[in-house]
Write a structure and sequence with these properties.
Helices cover 53% and strands 9% of the residues. By secondary structure, it is α/β, with parallel strands linked by helices. α4 links the parallel β6 and β7. α15 packs antiparallel against α16, α18 packs parallel to α20 and α23 runs parallel beside α25. The protein starts with a strand and ends with a helix.
Length: 628
């Protein structure tokens, strides 16, 4: 069987698994012999540049006599799908990874593929949308040559988390991590960022328990790597995939909202029970390496009749050429890398030559130019390109005066051009359209400026996936989300211009639209209420902002300063203690906070607070504070 895998690195874990299978198949001379070639734009067996080449060019680069049985496209959510891909004369399979961050792009572009594999949440979402050619396959695994027990390594941590702190992407996980930090006064907790390679493996080996949480309720790499390194896997109870690999209570521990702290404390204290579970999971995980998972993928493709498929059902092929070019442009727009933006501009412009009456394509082309404008250092070039993008959004509006997304993008372009008054007018127009009850204001369901993984963009993608089978519900949720964001922007405008009453009104609108996302609006509202002398309400908003965004150190410092200045010393001490607990376990807080606590102690002295309390706070500061 001749297999092409597109868009993996031969030096990463899956690339090494490919090398292993190639060498093993050759040595065994199996009747099921498979030969795999890697295609990418830098160091693959075949070098291919999707920005400048058509996929039909691949044929000329294949070895003599090579006849492809299947091509597997790795991660189209981050990679430009080349032009002509839908006409590939052999079966093509998509492996979707972070689909939740790019669903607007994938929704129609994956109609180019004959078969799609991904995590269970993605499979459920796509089946809900009517896709039948999808199946579950775990894209994550571990490397047994690297992730393993190390000899003579002491368990110095009770609980460890290794990953990233990003409230935009991992809001739910951060709330669990905040609960974890509250136990740091009793246990050795460590939250580590940017730990890779040998240090990563060593830290897992040094840990009794590894906290984990799947963003898509999937089984991620850490779920296999932790047991392989001799740590107890601690994973959320509602994970959709964990039971396919580990038996809860015997090979892993699952937590929920009611038992989180209790079962953590139990397995920290009970060494023998913990070690029995670790040994069982360590044995179980041996069959979950990248090699094993790649073999299962090939078997899954065979079982679904993809090998030998002669008749392809690819709905993408039936689209008008202008729509194909538009979808190709979307793929380029969402792809990683600046060169893909240039491809997006070209593809959208080619689409407009065939159909210049598409408001959505004009908006898309404007977005490509706007994002390209963010790259040059020359302010004159940047502003010239931004104005061109503004005219394209204007063209989209001329074709559809109800295009709320085009108005929103114009508002953000105005901000980038340092024209806050123009931005205000555009955002007020967005609010008018949202509140008018008019239908068909979302002529484009994506394409927001700027192109970045912020909370707004990520939640937009979540909504697009969650309500894929209900357009009415989808548009309702888009309205709420856009209302949240635009109201926050209007609040920022009025706050900057010292119009506090109007700012307060818009921040309240923002909170009402999406209360669970409104930590920034709550924080700014708290500042307004504080300056009005409304301490009770300000304190309430500060608390809610911290609960929604517990790892934002600036909110912590603001609330501590606020409580100190209004002489609420008891509450101030509580927040100091919580903050110091966070700072003791997370590298995010390596800042000089000595001035805050010195001021607090001085104020306590001035108010003749008991010496015992002063000594107590001094002790906390000396133990936990990180001085420059």
């Amino acid at each position: 069987m001749k297999i092409l895998i597109y868009n993996i690195n031969p030096n990463d874990y899956m690339g090494q698994a490919v090398k292993y299978l190639n060498s093993r198949n050759q040595s065994e001379n199996s009747p099921d012999f498979s030969e795999i070639l890697i295609i990418n734009d830098t160091n693959g067996d075949i070098i291919f540049n999707p920005v400048t080449e058509n996929f039909s060019d691949i044929e000329a680069k294949l070895p003599p006599g090579w006849k492809t049985d299947v091509l597997i496209f790795w991660g189209p959510e981050y990679t430009l799908i080349p032009q002509g891909f839908e006409n590939t004369p052999f079966p093509i399979v998509a492996m979707l990874g972070d689909w939740n961050l790019s669903f607007s792009n994938l929704r129609d572009n994956i109609k180019q593929f004959d078969f799609i594999v991904s995590d269970k949440s993605c499979v459920e979402t796509l089946k809900k949308a009517g896709y039948k050619n999808v199946d579950y396959w775990p894209g994550n695994a571990f490397n047994p040559d690297f992730h393993k027990r190390l000899p003579n390594v002491e368990k110095i941590y009770d609980v460890v988390f290794i990953g990233s702190i990003n409230n935009d992407i991992h809001r739910k996980r951060e709330k669990w991590l905040y609960r974890l930090t509250s136990m740091a006064d009793k246990y050795k907790i460590n939250i580590l960022l940017n730990v890779y390679g040998d240090k990563y493996v060593e830290t897992l080996n040094q840990s009794k328990i590894v906290f984990n949480y799947g963003i898509r309720k999937e089984i991620n790499m850490r779920a296999f790597e932790a047991p392989a390194c001799g740590a107890l896997l601690f994973l959320e109870e509602d994970n959709l995939e964990v039971r396919d690999y580990f038996e809860p209570g015997k090979e892993c521990i699952l937590y929920n909202n009611d038992n989180f702290e209790e079962i953590l404390a139990y397995y920290i204290a009970h060494d023998q029970e913990r070690e029995e579970i670790i040994k069982a999971s360590e044995e179980r995980v041996k069959t979950e390496s990248y090699r094993h998972h790649l073999e299962r993928l090939l078997k899954l493709i065979k079982e679904n009749g993809i090998i030998g498929l002669k008749k392809f059902s690819r709905p993408f092929c039936n689209l008008p050429q202008s729509e194909k070019l538009y979808q190709n442009g979307l793929s380029a727009l969402y792809a990683v890398g600046n060169k893909s933006i240039l491809a997006a501009k070209r593809l959208f412009e080619e689409s407009l030559k065939l159909n210049s009456d598409s408001s959505e394509t004009w908006n898309a082309c404007g977005l490509a130019y706007a994002n390209d404008a963010l790259e040059p250092d020359n302010i004159q070039i940047k502003n010239t390109v931004l104005r061109k993008a503004m005219r394209m959004f204007g063209k989209a509006i001329s074709l559809n005066p109800l295009s709320v997304i085009a108005y929103y993008n114009q508002g953000n372009i105005s901000l980038a051009l340092n024209q806050p008054e123009a931005a205000k007018e555009k955002f007020l127009k967005v609010i008018d359209l949202l509140e008018s009850g008019t239908e068909n204001i979302f002529d484009c369901k994506t394409l927001l400026f700027p192109r970045e993984f912020n909370l707004f963009r990520i939640e937009w993608e979540n909504i697009t996936a969650a309500f894929i089978d209900s357009e009415n519900s989808l548009f309702r949720e888009y309205k709420n989300l856009l209302s949240w964001k635009v109201s926050e922007k209007m609040g920022d405008y009025f706050l900057k211009n010292n119009h506090f009453e109007q700012a307060q009104s818009f921040y309240l609108k923002s909170i009402l639209a999406r209360p669970e996302l409104a930590s920034q609006s709550r924080w700014k509202l708290a500042e307004i209420l504080k300056n009005q002398g409304n301490n009770e309400d300000a304190y309430q908003q500060y608390q809610k902002a911290i609960n929604d965004e517990p790892f934002n150190k600036l909110i912590w410092l603001d609330i501590i300063d606020f409580l100190f200045n209004i002489n609420w010393y008891s509450e101030c001490e509580q927040f100091c203690r919580k903050f110091l607990l966070l700072s003791s376990v997370s590298p995010l807080y390596e800042i000089d906070t000595s001035d805050i606590y010195t001021s607090l102690i001085f104020e306590i002295r001035l108010n003749e607070i008991q010496k015992e309390k002063i000594d107590n706070i001094m002790s906390i500061c000396q133990t936990n504070m990180k001085y420059n």
